[in-house]
Amino acid sequence: MSLHKFSNNNTRLSPVEKTTFLDEGVLEVKHIQEALAVDIEILEQRVMVIAREYNKWAGSQKAIDILAIDQDGNLIVIELKRGTNDSTPDLQAIRYAGMVSVMSREDIVSTYQEYAKLETESEAEAVISAFLGGEIEEHSLGEKVRIFIVAQDFTDEVVATVLWLNTQGLDISCYTLSPYKHNDDLLLFSQRLIPLREASEWQGKFARKEREVRASNVKRDYTKFTVVCDGVKRGPLPKNRTILCIVKWLLEKGYASVDELKTLIGRFTNLELFADIVTDDAGTIIQGVDGYRKGRYFEKPEEIIHVGERTVVMSTQWGGEEFFTAMKLLKDKYGSFFECTESVR
């Protein structure tokens, strides 16, 4: 994020210097917390602060930076971080949310009464009721706890964690506060990071993960096959080993080439069909080249394929439909060299 100002009669843009709270001597409690408590709506509209440095629970010296409510009566735990290198603000905020989740309506009213320095609970109730837009009894005050995490920046680790926690039913928002220096003025740019397009890359990852989970919940096909090559029967074999058996035999007998098989069935596995490797005298892989990814290829000595001067391994990644499409193509072109039948269960 960059900030610019117009100059030269509004015909040029000049960058405004970005700085840090530390460099400007801005303190977390004395400056940031106090300013946000007064102008909390720079984070979200229709939010009311009911406490600062709230720590009214037994057995803990920790304090919530700012405690607030929204117009639905939800509690909001607001955790502030002046720096950019804290990797655990999410965990700290969750602990605080757990602690205040047991607050009753009376607790919330008395907490605000103390914060606002009101003489009676009735006054506090009247202010809260006016904020909520109705009598306090009409709202489920404190039934849900939301979390706001505010920092100058967030690590990928925190962003990923928050996005995942939100998929599990939590309500966490991340806000960035970016300080800029312009002459003698310190400017502040505030922005909600989560949920916004800046988090789209991580959201896309979670969406893909959810699709994978849904796919994995579909009933798996554990069908096995028997392969006969040169009168030698092999099996029952799972689908990926069935492909390996046929491909290895075709290559080592010279009935097919690496390039021919890549062209024929290479597009049906989500890796390169073959990866070139270097092995030691015992047949153990000591070096992989050409897109080799350890653990994603058939790597045991007896599974490695030797073709002339080349030594290659074959991908293990074969889905259900991809397997059957690849097998049909292999049978159509090389079916006179092998037989493959479904094993009797």
TrEMBL record:
Residues 30-98 form the Endonuclease NucS C-terminal domain. InterPro entries: NucS_C, tRNA_endonuc-like_dom_sf. GO terms for molecular function: endonuclease activity; nucleic acid binding. Pfam families: NucS_C. This is Endonuclease NucS C-terminal domain-containing protein. It comes from Halodesulfovibrio marinisediminis DSM 17456.
